Amino acid sequence: MNAVEQSVRSPERTSENAPAAPAEPTRAGRSIEARLVERLLSLLGNPAIEFLLWTGERVSGRPGEKVQQLHIKDRSTLFTLFKDSQVGFGDAYSDGRVTVEGDLVAFLETVYESMPRGSAEQSLLRRFMSRRRGPRANTLEGSRENIHRHYDIGNEFYALWLGRTMSYTCGYYPTVSASLDEAQLAKMHHVCRKLQLQPGQRVVEAGCGWGTLGLHMARHYGVKVRAFNISHEQIVFARARAMAEGLASQVEYVEDDYRNITGTYDAFVSVGMLEHVGVENYPELGRIANQSLLRRGRGLIHSIGRNHAAPLHAWIERRIFPGAYPPSLAEMMKIFEPWDLSVLDVENLRLHYAKTLRHWLALYEAASERVKNMFDEKFVRMWRLYLAGSVAGFTTGTLQLFQVVFAPPDNNDIPLTRAHLYQG
Amino acid sequence: MNAVEQSVRSPERTSENAPAAPAEPTRAGRSIEARLVERLLSLLGNPAIEFLLWTGERVSGRPGEKVQQLHIKDRSTLFTLFKDSQVGFGDAYSDGRVTVEGDLVAFLETVYESMPRGSAEQSLLRRFMSRRRGPRANTLEGSRENIHRHYDIGNEFYALWLGRTMSYTCGYYPTVSASLDEAQLAKMHHVCRKLQLQPGQRVVEAGCGWGTLGLHMARHYGVKVRAFNISHEQIVFARARAMAEGLASQVEYVEDDYRNITGTYDAFVSVGMLEHVGVENYPELGRIANQSLLRRGRGLIHSIGRNHAAPLHAWIERRIFPGAYPPSLAEMMKIFEPWDLSVLDVENLRLHYAKTLRHWLALYEAASERVKNMFDEKFVRMWRLYLAGSVAGFTTGTLQLFQVVFAPPDNNDIPLTRAHLYQG
Questions:
Q1: Which residues contact A10 (CB under 8 A, 6 or more apart)?
Q2: Do B329 and A328 count as a contact with CB atoms less than 8 A apart?
Q3: Segment A294-338, tens digit of pLDDT
Q4: Is the minimum CB–CB distance between A117 and chain B shorter than 8 Å?
Q5: Which of A39, A160, A276, A419 is most buried (most C-beta within 10 Å)?
Q6: What is the dotted CATH code of the domain comprising B140-422?
Q7: Does the structural domain B3-130 have CATH classification 3.30.1050?
Q8: CB contact, 8 Å: A415 with chain B?
Q9: What residue ranges of chain A are covered by domains with CATH 3.40.50.150?
Q10: For residues A102-121, b (16+ Cβ closer than 10 Å) or e, as one string?
């Protein structure tokens, strides 16, 4: 047990469930609570934020132009933050035991920016604890349960804030002023151009969300698509869309795991599924991609990533995305290298995801009353924190978005340059 | 010792220095030599080539439209090929004990294409042997000796076939019909655009060859450059060029190792040095890049690479590039990940290097009489094989060319898209 752990544990045990009485001043004129906050701020790299305690005490990190303010409602909440800065903060925020004055994104950016590089946002204690618990396994059954918990919340809920395309992945902004729907449309064209789709070709999609990309490929590029997904709600939605749009003969939605993909195709595409695959399954995903591709085939995998291997934010993994993990580029190579697949292009779209998430967050806030009626206030705050924290993750470089194009090693039928992606 | 090794070793010992007498027919009507060739062809994946032995015997792999012919001059040469297909073939070709009928590049492509994917062009025996010998270490002193052996052969020699730019790295062909000099010029602009160079900025270059890129950056982008290189011949040449072109005040050439780079810069660039760094030194190279870059800085590393970790062709490493190693992308990540550097863009220019090498090879062949006068016939054949083999490596996907753009993790002053690379 290290010094930090000791300094937390002892007061917690004695003060459990104590009433929110004024804190006892110490020798230095500061309460034990205030000194704990100082320690917490120090672990966070001393960001320009101010803790306002239930006692009325204020404790600040470094001075800054805009000092963000955090309200802590009671003593046990403070101890929770100290014990587990990730899950503790997330749960306390959701419950309203912690509130943030002003802009939540700006507050989280301030915290993320101040943290020592490579610290992976973990308190020493959390780091110690997280060794004992990894993300939930993505076996065939585990994946189904993990995916169900996030994506089967209800299509109506997602429709409130994903925009007209129902694309739940990073958009592509050709210009800074593009709208969300424009960015999602441009993303799909960007992906299709990277895949060099030609009319009559066959595409397999691993993880197809609400089916948007498959329909887009069929409509604009004249290809036939088989799209796999294990979210029942999404498959039902996607099939209905294909029928309504007269594309059911071109796009087949298969309610099954990517590991059960069969057949050969001109293109393999997976946008936003890799986060749910688990590094231990990357060689298997690569095997599927490799066996799916004809010699002149092309593939694209689009995923949230990291600059270096690090666990997903523990609260996000526990409350929002069970089993999820954003890989480093080196980890992603475990997909391609065992099969001698050739990486042709990697594009980091980090700032595009920050913009996408800001658009989602704005729509979400506008619909928050409806979300509250669907669920409850705690749910509203939980998803607000998830979306705002994700914006901050991408703007501060804690999270990346990698779009990787690949092909069999001897496919020389590839464009000499990438200029074709930027024409018209 | 495995079966292959045994089957090679025994005949070799008994037949050493034996005269090239007609081979003794076996029960099957085939000589021992012919059966050895069949085994060799089988290990190579049975390519559409024909061995013509000193005895007049012919042994072919699979039938093909254009069967390439290989002449073997004597029995000991055949055994050498069998014992070590990489170094043995290279040395025998250099000595003229093996000759190839027709186009050498096409012959090598036929062999490379037929080899089982991931086999890394190694006979079983060679694979066994290579475990005992890695590339020569790239310590400060080892690097100096390794670099001296390749780059200090003589500027006059390289000037015969590198074209006017004296760029000894992969060019960039905006169109298939671009000339070598146009491609080298376009490559430098492509690199500078990826680095977003602005007038007045400072650039550090790790491994600068004959100084071409440094002069280009200063002339066309108005930046100040410090360029490091441990090849004495190249530094002398580069300084003379900077003087002659009136750029000596903007470009400083430093005869020193990249590990001794100091100061901070707007951009870090290294084109074609990583092959000589050694994977064990990648974190150190990353440390240098990281400490060199200002917060708004950008970096670019351009290197020959692989689809998966594999040793360099043993003959190339021994005779042409001592200490060299082309990394996989996962290995390259050892440069960036320890320092939380963010990979923004990876472009695979494999087919551009095939084109560049074809241009070099044509100029080299045109100058072969002069090369012979400078050195000797063996040297001419040795470098012909190196250039032709490199073309085949890139066209068949055995070799890759990765151009990686990176930046500190919180540099948000980066272009939203890559469209700016393709304008004008």
A1: none
A2: no
A3: 999 999 999 999 999 998 889 998 898 888 999 999 999 999 999
A4: yes
A5: A276
A6: 3.40.50.150
A7: yes
A8: no
A9: 140-422
A10: eebbbbbbbbbbbbebebbb
